[in-house]
Design a protein that fits this description.
This protein has a 6-stranded mixed sheet, covered by helices on one side. Strand 8, helix 6 and strand 9 form a beta-alpha-beta unit. The longest helix is centred in the last third of the chain and has 19 residues. Helix 1 runs parallel beside helix 3 and helix 5 runs parallel beside helix 6. The chain is an alpha/beta fold and 309 residues long. The N and C termini lie far apart (55 Å). It has 9 helices and 14 strands. The protein is globular, with a radius of gyration of 19 Å.
Length: 309
């Protein structure tokens, strides 16, 4: 058995005025609870340190940059790193990354129990739009503020296993999991900020959005025989509701633990990485069963090409 004692740390809403220091204090409370629950790996959501700022249209780049982290740890995030190391706990969280050479990414890191960064991922599938869109009930400007990730979908060895990350919208794309599956991933961690209502379609509300969120995560887990830990930022941020629905999914695609609120909430489960072995050796033994000669469209074609009419 290769056990990882996981704490999926759902965050409730973070209002626009809330400081990083205040959010970090909330994260530390969850971390202490995770320690009490016996966890050795805590996962926080996408853009965990601030409100989901891509809903706000900004033209002044210096204002945009106030939402980004230039250093990690920074004075505001150092207490989080210190507490994780004191607890001997690995952690992962999402943040807006501004690199030394001026690039902007929607990023997640995985930090081991000694405080070393063992994994970094930059969001590949950026949803939304670049300009203010009057056709939407609210804005989703990730394509304005972030560049697509430039690291691919790396996996890395830690906690006696093979780990990878993705971020929010990435979870809806089967390629995300398969690229990591092809590197033997045993646990994918991801965070999300998903509005409770579709900005183009008001009758697609939280029930359907939660269904889609679980559907894609469970499918990704099963089809690649991997654990998936899917962690929400939830609740009403300044009048903009986000779904909850934090879940831990086993390599059979079953939900083994889930959140019950839209608040700060810990979801814990002990995950045996050896549970990934059966599926990887049988129905999803890629080397025996994949037929890549029929998959070329997946990498050579982006949009739909209809058959001749
Ligand atoms: N943060 C993020 O990626 N949210 C998207 C919303 C899509 S609607 C533009 C998601 O896939 O949940």
């Amino acid at each position: 058995m290769r056990m990882v004692h996981v704490a999926a740390a759902q965050l409730g809403p973070i209002q626009k005025v809330e400081s990083r220091q205040a959010v970090v204090a909330r994260m530390i409370v969850l971390m202490d609870k995770a320690k009490d629950a016996g966890a050795n790996f805590i996962i926080f959501p996408e853009l965990a340190l601030t409100t989901f700022f891509p809903r706000y249209f900004m033209e002044d780049q210096s204002e945009v940059d106030t939402w980004f982290e230039k250093d990690l740890p920074s004075p505001a995030t150092q207490p989080l790193f210190d507490r994780a190391r004191d607890h001997g706990m690995a952690m992962s969280f999402g943040y807006a990354e501004l690199t030394a050479d001026g690039h902007h990414f929607n990023t997640s890191v995985h930090i081991d129990n000694s405080g070393a960064i063992v994994g970094k991922y930059r969001k590949v599938h950026l949803p939304g739009h670049v300009e203010f869109d009057t056709g939407r009930a609210f804005q989703h400007l990730e394509k304005r503020y972030f560049e697509p990730g430039d690291l691919g979908f790396p996996v890395y060895r830690t906690l006696e296993g093979i780990f990878g990350m993705c971020i929010c919208n990435d979870r809806r794309w089967p390629e995300t999991y398969r690229v990591m599956g092809l590197q033997g991933v045993e646990m994918v961690t991801l965070g999300y900020n998903t509005p409770s209502v579709n900005s183009h379609k008001g009758d697609e509300g939280p029930k359907q959005r939660l269904f889609h969120s679980s559907l894609v995560v469970q499918a990704g887990a099963y089809q690649n025989s991997t654990w998936v830990v899917s962690v929400a930022k939830a609740g009403d941020e300044d009048g903009h509701p986000l779904i909850g629905g934090t879940i831990i999914v086993n390599p059979d695609g079953e939900v083994v633990a889930e959140a019950s609120s839209e608040e700060d909430e810990l979801v814990v489960h002990s995950c045996d990485l050896d549970d990934t072995v059966f599926g990887k050796k049988t129905i999803f033994d890629f080397v025996r069963h994949r037929r890549v000669e029929h998959y070329t469209r997946i990498t050579e074609q982006v949009g739909v090409e209809l058959p001749p009419g």
